[in-house]
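Title: Comparing notes on inverse folding

I've been comparing how different people in this forum approach sequence design from structure. To keep things fair, I'm posting one structure and asking everyone to reply with a full sequence. Here's the target:
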């Protein structure tokens, strides 16, 4: 094994003209070590090139990455180092405000688990998951994919966006020579077995594993340390029945997300084309964010699944009280356009209402949103003293059916209207034989 300790105190020059000091070891492995330079707040990743095959592959991967793609791949800028042969490597600026995924997934057991999870709660975990999916969707068009998925190299910024610090884990999908690495936590089975080159489908599997672990802090095929190429099956228990299954399914993700995980880990474990796309996973995470309520006692984010929602906070045990939500649905109206005969297909989508108010976008209001900008606000929701008011900010009227009424009232663009419980809103004109998006105002949980 190479003696990395002998390199402590060595000074090396970077392509930025600065002289860095290998002041302390952050991590070490037989072929690679990471040093810190506190003066310039830099991490220096250095390889021993004595293993010619591994060295050649790592050098090729780093040299192949054009600077113009670093942003698309969510990579930090690379500073090449001048080192004596056979050593080679690079430096990156260290950002102490980011947190690696390994720290967020692997509980250190230095504090109670629920307190540790609450510090980076479910809302932040869902936002980070959606951002990870968005990042992977961007890089799938670059011709690059990840050969390895070490959790420590992927970090979350304060705004929940994702940043990576390992350019050596990327390769063009037609050129990679796979390297046996120690961290195989999220690697796809076909890469672990050496049967395929990395590509967008292998990245999708790894994204699924990473999101599942980030939300539940347990590997989908077992506890921490079991890998995706093991012979265990994915069996998602509804409640925590083992010490490592600390977050029950119903507290971590929605039914839509559970279905996508099933496609990924059961049908798609080896049948790669069955896997959900990163875009599908991102959409599910974004919709799950809509379903988050807040515990009135401890402030933790809680998933609200339906009107008969779980009534106790997972973190403090307090009752959640009454939670108001819009229950969205797709509707096919009959010839009489009667509101009580409109609901044909549920969309499994809630929007939990908070006193901070909400903006409604195309994903909330329109059944067909192909020609609408996702960022266009179509309505704004206000919440005061348990009275819900909506402002129509779209260019077309909304139609509201109040409880017990058979006639709709049209609400013109720019107008506000009150919404009593059990009211139904159609965001497009109800017409016979046409699929439109609707919403019903419901109360979930305990009625005070």
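Reply #1:
Here's my take.
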């Amino acid at each position: 094994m190479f003696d990395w300790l002998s390199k402590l105190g060595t000074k090396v020059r970077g392509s930025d003209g600065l002289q860095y000091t290998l002041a302390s070891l952050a991590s070490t492995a037989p072929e690679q070590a990471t040093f810190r330079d506190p003066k310039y707040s830099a991490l220096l990743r250095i390889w021993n090139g004595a293993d010619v095959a591994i060295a050649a592959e790592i050098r090729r991967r780093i040299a192949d990455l054009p600077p113009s793609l670093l942003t698309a791949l969510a990579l930090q800028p690379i500073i090449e180092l001048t080192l004596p042969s056979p050593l080679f490597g690079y430096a990156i600026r260290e950002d102490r405000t980011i947190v690696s995924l390994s720290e967020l997934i692997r509980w250190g057991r230095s504090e109670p688990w629920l307190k540790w999870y609450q510090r980076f709660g479910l809302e932040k975990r869902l936002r980070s998951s959606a951002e990870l999916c968005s990042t992977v969707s961007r890089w799938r068009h670059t011709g690059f994919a990840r050969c390895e998925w070490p959790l420590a190299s992927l970090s979350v910024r304060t705004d929940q966006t994702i940043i990576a610090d390992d350019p050596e884990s990327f390769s063009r999908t037609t050129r990679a020579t796979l390297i046996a690495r120690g961290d195989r936590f999220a690697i796809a089975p076909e890469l672990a077995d050496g049967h395929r080159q990395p590509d967008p489908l292998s990245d999708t599997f790894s994204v699924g594993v990473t999101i599942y672990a980030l939300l539940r802090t347990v590997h989908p095929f077992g506890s921490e340390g079991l890998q995706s190429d093991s012979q265990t099956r994915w069996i998602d228990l509804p409640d925590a029945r083992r010490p490592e299954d600390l977050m029950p399914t119903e507290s971590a993700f929605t039914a839509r997300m559970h279905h996508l995980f099933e496609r990924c880990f059961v049908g798609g474990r080896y049948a790669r084309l069955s896997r959900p796309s990163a875009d599908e996973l991102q959409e599910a995470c974004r919709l799950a964010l809509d379903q988050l309520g807040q515990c009135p006692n401890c402030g933790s984010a809680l998933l609200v699944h339906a009107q008969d929602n779980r009534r106790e906070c997972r973190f403090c045990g307090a009752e959640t009280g009454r939670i108001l939500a819009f229950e969205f649905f797709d509707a096919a109206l009959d010839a009489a356009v009667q509101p009580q005969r409109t609901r044909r297909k549920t969309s499994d989508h809630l929007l939990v209402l908070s006193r901070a108010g909400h903006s409604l976008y195309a994903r909330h209001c329109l059944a067909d949103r192909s020609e609408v900008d996702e960022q266009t606000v179509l309505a704004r929701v206000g919440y005061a003293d348990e009275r819900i008011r909506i402002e129509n900010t779209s260019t077309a009227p909304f139609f509201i059916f109040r409880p017990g009424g058979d006639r709709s009232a049209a609400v013109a663009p720019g107008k506000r209207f009150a919404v009593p419980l059990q009211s139904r809103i159609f965001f497009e004109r109800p017409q016979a034989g046409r699929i439109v998006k609707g919403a019903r105002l419901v109360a979930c949980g305990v009625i005070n």
